[in-house]
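Fig. S4 source data, part A: sequence.
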Amino acid sequence: MTTTQARPGTIGGPEQVLTDDEITRFVREQLDARDLDGRSVLLLIPDGTRSCPLPLLLSAVHRALAGRATRLTALVALGTHAPMSEAHLATMLGYPEGRIQDQYPGMTVLNHEWWDPDTFVSLGTIPSSRIAELSEGRLDTGVDVRLNRAVVEHDVAIVVGPVFPHEVVGFSGGNKYFFPGVAGPAIIDLSHWLGALITSSEIIGTRGITPVRALINEAAAMIPSQKLALCVVAQSGTGALHAASFGDTESAWGAAADIAAQTHVKYLDTPVTRVLSIIPEKYEDIWTGAKGFYKLEPVVADGGEVILYAPHITTISEMHPEIYEIGYHCRDYFVKQWDTFKDVHWGVLAHSTHLRGAGTWDAEHGEHDRVRVTLATGIPEHVVVKANLGYRDPASIDVAAFEADGETFVVPNAGEVLYRLR
């Protein structure tokens, strides 16, 4: 079922912080106005790497749909992140461990089991000619659009989650919860590699319909279920909300992204030579903690350094072991040696380029990266060096000394706010 786009309902703004009552009332009003009686509803929700008051939002949605929806399911849009344990789900969603029915009676919560081929159903294909058009000539391969079958097995799919600047698509949220959130590997690889070809520093924080967003929207248009979204703009570091928008997945996302562009992008007047990016514990590996680099790369001077400080992180990625084999390299390292790397998952290649940042490679001179990336984590030095990154003992990091040295830009709670030069 498709719907005609209309102006989304929006509450709040960049200078506001909403109260719980305002949010709950807004959710109730928006859902009361929708024809959801007697229909099955799937809620697509973020995993623990995204900040937002999810217990408040999910409780408000649950109360508004209780007695109306014939079936209510929440699906964690993992993309290719690690699955969430029951303990993590209980903490994230605000219910006693093992007792979800106490907080959300009648609702089922599922991880997106992206590692299991039986998870998916095919919606059809996007032909190579259309991919070439959407990618502005960067790619010309067709793709099988596979999606978690739970989406098509419900009448209505409602995205519930935050919008942030994003290294692949420009701004996260909206239809991104379907692709790559609960999508099959082929379109995940394609969308991420398209973003990598554009480069993270170029696309991150770009408003409007980027080529990757256009691809995502094209795939989402193939979904037979009705698609709605509750897109929110979180106050970074607190979990409170600046704003919320409800409507179809494109217009609600657009309204929230316009606000996030004002709250989650900060500007510096001059480049910095060194950044100490302090990675919060919600990022449990470098695969997710790398956001502390993506959001800072644009303000680092040529030859500068970003130190990712995360003593709690002890692994690069358990879910993507290929990254240990290829290491971290700039885009051109892969593009100009494509025959060597074309069979590696393109999403892994994309992640590699995103963390290594801008650079060049040619057969004569090798690789030259614009900035240095140093890990001060619990990952052993030999693993870090093999991955083509710099190593620093996390015990040697004195945050107060860095703050006082006059040369280091120290960023606490890194990973959500994007920094750019004016």
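Fig. S4 source data, part B ends here. The first strand starts at residue 9 and ends at 12.
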